[in-house]
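assembly run, all chains below
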Amino acid sequence: MPAIEREIRTGETMQVGDYQITPTTNVLKIRLPGQRAGLIWNRPKAVTVRTSNGQENSLPVRDVTRLVIWYMLAGGLLGAILIGLMYHKD
Amino acid sequence: MTDEMNTNPPVEAGLEMFQDTMHEFLAAADVRVVYGEPILHDDTMIIPTAEVLCGLGFGVGSGSGTNADQNPDKPSQGSGSGGGGGGRILSRPVAVIVASPEGVRVEPVIDITKIGLAALTALGFMVGMMFRMSSRRHALPTSEE
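ok done. output:
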């Protein structure tokens, strides 16, 4: 059994009007080797939308909050490095 | 016989509880945990989505020993076992899927509080670095000194 396992799971298809919606998730499983402990991180990946005329479209589910937080922290860190470099030049 | 009757039920109950907990833990990997129950309003269906983070850890142990201090001819024996564990499930809304006759769209759920905290942390990085640099500059000895 691997310590870190990643899989994409597909849920049941739902019918809404002319659309068939199939959800998919991204699952990350971490098992600590030699320890009786584990972690499961399950997050939405995308929804596949199929219309009655056979058109299929995948809509990604983006975690905007996480993206903004990461960009802000990266920006803060980059800003701190730039400030440090500017003071060093002076 | 009496002892067995007294000790087995708690062990079985403990194992049963552990199995239930493991079952709940593994259920966190299911798709239905992330995509909530669809809410139907007129022609529109809303499906809430969330990310789920679940951690679990447990430990068991047993031991036995003899004690011959009080009566060396007939040492007393004993054994015991125990276990414990803990876990936590965290859930956070990510987006809402809106399906209407006009089409299907994904509306993100934005957590302003978390973003505000991240902004303050980022600002703290920069202000901290500015203070550090300016205090270092003041601490440097001049050529006249």
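Chain A touches chain B through 49 residues (CB under 8 Å).

Chain A has one domain: 4-89.

not gonna interpret more than that til we talk
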